[in-house]
Amino acid sequence: MGMGTEEENGEANQRSGPNPTPNPLTQAQFLSWKRHKDAEASARKAEAARKRAEDIAAGVVQMNGRELFLHEPSVFDNSLY
Question: Which residue, among 41, 69, 35, has the nearest Cα to 49 in the 3D structure?
Answer without folding.
Answer: 41
